[in-house]
Every structure is written in structure tokens, then in C-alpha cells.
Amino acid sequence: MLAVLAAALALSAPPQQDWSATLQGDARAFHDLVAANHPGPVDPLNPGFSALNDDGLRQAIDRAGTVTDYAGYRAAMRGYAARFDDSHLNYSEVDGPPVPRLWAGFLTAYDPSGRYVVATRSPDAPVHEGDVLVECDGQPADAIALSRLGRFTGRWLLQATRGRTAWRLFVEDGNPFIERPETCVFETAGGRAAVALTWRDFPADEFDRYAEPLASPQTPPIAARAFPDGTRWFSFSSFDGTPDGYVARRITPLIDSLRTDREALSGAPRIVLDLRGNGGGSSLWSRQIAQALWGRAAVEKATLSSDGVEWRASPGNVETFVGFRTKFAAAPPHIRTYVEQVIAGISSARAAGLPLWREPKGLLPDEPAPPSAAAVDDGPQLRTPVYVVTDWTCASACLDAVDLWRALGAIQVGQDTDADTLYIEARRDLLPSGLGQAVVPMKVYRGRPRGSNQPWRPVHPFPGDISDTPALEAWIAGLERP
Fold it and tell me: How far, in Å, CA of 150 to CA of 357, rounded?
């Protein structure tokens, strides 16, 4: 009787996931989506792209032979995407079973001098805040960080990448392709000390207390402030382009106030454009901000445009833009017209057998100016110093803002920005397992002044914690007026 019951229970149990097969299926789908829709495989200026994609697939298939759980699957997909060193080409997790975390009782941060420094710790940790990592198990700190983080993140040449990921150096999330450090040497107040690491569970409440402030530092909301000394501070922590979305509702009145308050702004001791936390969105916002501050004529003169952009002429990319008809149904007419022109352009290239479609210059015009903009254009040239604050999150459309605002004379302060390659405008496709998406760029810049994976570095680097707003305000107020 018991044997019959056991057999019945076995038949009713859900089948166990074959993680090796899951990884192979998703890796092949990722490869094929990149091959079919990314400009790289047909880009004459990047002849090694397809080989890079093929090598990534081979590595993932090789790793599939040892993958037995979701954590291994996820690490392999992350490692595949990291090989491209491209923030717009990646594997994005959607859903998956929970993965237990371990930690060594402390977390590190990446300081401006390139060191991994203990930033937070549990009361019983064997290290103290401010201790500096020297090596682990005979490997220098940089080598440990590269093997544990860089090979599964990509773009390790960027300070921004190292800074954003440093908190994960002593966190384990089930990656079977890295080794767990056993003994590390730290530079402490009393000299160098070897520390034996004890790895233990990292439950959610401890993660929220110790890791969350480092992983997701607070950023100021989109807002305008006026200081007693007359300083005007504008925080733009997002450039999300969703029509009628939260960002649009917050930024639009700020831009209107910039247009109408030009005279008062000209008398301020300084204007601060704060981009902390801004990971991109729509470049139209930064252009409108520039037009309101410096005037349309100045913006046109300063714009550092590329030679052009080319779109991969694939059926999938046409389908993506057809979907944009619904997404941007409430967008301004010039945006909806642009969507239709891109659909027609890519379709015409496909009909002609061309792998790429070159977008005509000026196809996406600026949003029509409101009546108040005319007065701004006729006003005097802005002579107030403008500071743009950046941090390691500044990417995509945020980089476009820094490109333009620096060209207009803004002074960058804070941290290095992130960087991007020349491949942009990504589409998202759900992979066969449903556990993640392939994020794949559809177009490529030609002749962009800022090079591939080239960050902007501040004129005045901020020496402290960039999330400490009062300290940042006082520091900027003390900068010598240009």
C-alpha cells in the first residue's frame, strides 16, 4: 500500500527543471535574436562582432554541462551578455526562483582612488569600516573583483561599473563559476591584517539594512529649489519618455519655469542641474532644458550631432516599431510621425535587400516651441555659471544631456558618468524559458563625437559620498567661480 502511495505521489509531483536544457535553449535564442536584429553582424566597421556572439554562445553551452539550478543558469546568461561590454545589449531577468544569498558579514564600496573599502559591517564582522582590501587568497584586490564581478557584468574598464557593483564583492548568489574567498588581507588602522572569512546566510532583513543603501542609493526627486544665496538647483533624476507619465508631469512645469524665469536665473550666483540617479530615457528632455536656459539658437550652434544613424533592417525591428504605435498613441504628433517614418524606412531597406537603413538627418524634429520660447531666444546670453552634477548611473539619454550641456558651457562636477557603445535603441524579447529577456540594440551611431564606451569625467570630482546632498551643496558653493 505504501509503495502504491509513493508511486502516486511521484506521478503527481511537478517535473524537475532541466536547467542545462533551459540554459542551452535561452542561450541559443539570445544568440539568434542578436544575430537577426542587432546592427553588429552587418556592421562593416565591426567585423569581429559575429565571432564575439558565437564565442559567447559556445561558452554558455559549455557551462550548461555543469549547471544544475537557476543560480547557475542566471550566472551563465549574465556571463554571455557581459562579453559584449555594452550597456544596451544585455540579459534582463524577469522571473525566477529565489536564490539564497550568503555574505561575509561586511560589504565594500569603491572609493575615488580605486580602492575597495569596507563600507558597512555587522557588529561581529572581523573588519571595520574604512579598512581597505589588499588581496584575497594571494590575488590582488583588482583581480578578485574582476573574476567575481567583472566577468559577469562587463564594461570593467569603467569606474562607474566598478563603483556600482563593489557592494557585491563579498556577497554570494549561487554563481558556480567563481571561487569563494577564504582569507583576505586588509589595510587597517593598525597595519595589514589577514582575515579568515566566515560565510553565512544573508537574510532579507539584513540585506535591506546593509546592502540596499549601497545597491540603490537614494536620489533626489525631480524638483526645483531656490537657496537663500540665490542659487537655483534643479534635480532631474530621470528622463523617462513615457507620455503623460510621472516624469513628464514633473519635468514639463520645470522646463516652463526655466523659460519664464530666465531673467531671475541670469542674476543667480550659480545654476545647478543635478542628474544624480538619472539612467536615461528620452534625450528630448535635456534638449528642451538647454533651449530654455541657453536659447534655441545657442543649442543649434552647440549641438554635437553624429554623422547619422543606421537601423538594422530586420523583420523583428519593424515589428517592434509597429508595437510603438500603441505605446506612443498619446505622444505628440511629431513622435507618432517619426515612428511611421522609421517603419517605412526599415521596410524599404528590406525590400531593396539592404542590411541597414540610414535615417535621414532631421527626421525627428524638436517638439514645437511654445509661445513663451520666443522671448527666451531673444533674451541676453546666459552668463550665470551652470554646474551639471553626475554620478555613476548617468547613461544613455543622461549622457546625451552631458554631451549637449558641456558643449554649451556647463561645468561637470561629481563622479564619472557611465558610458555606452555606438549601438543604441534597444528592443526586448522574452526568452523561451520566460525567465529573462534579450535586450538588443537596433541602431548604430555613425561619427558620434563621444566614442564607444567613453565616459564623461568631471572637471571637479567630488571627494565625498555623492548621495550626501548637504555636503554636495556646500562643496559646490565653495567652488571658485569661473
Answer: 34
